[in-house]
Amino acid sequence: WTYSLVMTGRNRHRWEKMSISEKLKDHVHMGGYTAGMCQSLPGDAPCAYITVLRHPVDRLISSFFYCRRKPNDQLCGSKQLQVPLSSVSLTEWAQHQSSFLLTQILYHPDDCLPFSKHVPCWFQQRNRLMKNLCSKKDLLSLADVVASRLEYAFASIGLLDAMPDTWKLLDEALGLSMSDVCSEYTANKATGQQDKKQGELLTHLRKHASENSFIQEALAEDLRIYREARRIFDQQRHVAFLHMKRAQPH
Length: 250
Hints:
Helices cover 57% and strands 3% of the residues. It has 250 residues and is mainly α. The protein has a two-stranded parallel ribbon with strand order 1-2. Helix 7 (136-153) packs parallel to helix 12, helix 8 (163-174) runs antiparallel to helix 9 (179-190) and helix 8 (163-174) crosses helix 12. The longest helix has 28 residues, at 220-247.
């Protein structure tokens, strides 16, 4: 299999301008701007979406620290903040990055035109989305619609905190054999030493985020989508387990 460049907003726009033969050269596309790619291919071209999701609170905390180290990464949108990133609180960061998952799922290339080095694609799209909706209630309703379609939109939904089973579900859904190769990698990553203070800080921030009404409101749309994704994952895992059990010789 061949892999394309990671689909940033700019790379996705370039891909949309390619001929069909050029689009079909690569078999796998990864990144936050892959939504809708199957619709740009011929109807007889095999194409499926898979996703691995992280709990919105964990993603928020991770990006909070990552963007302090890499403020120029497009996922940070640092230049859109009114204050230096180093002085931003977790609550302010949640409000800055709100609806991140929702905007990724609803991505359309035209939402990121014209391109700007200073305004990331997700930020442009989120602003356009907010302009077209009248209230927070409308945004939550949109998230509910997206959540209700997840099972039909994705061939497989995985969870970052359950990677061994995620690999197995990918095998089941796509006829791949990734679990044997990738489970060892996952185990090695999982057994990596974690600084005790980092672990305590993460636990504290998770608790703070779960009790902070402003953070919960900022993440409300993504939390609704994630809850449904977890339900689908648990259901797929149960069905796959039954299939494997029936396939075992008696």
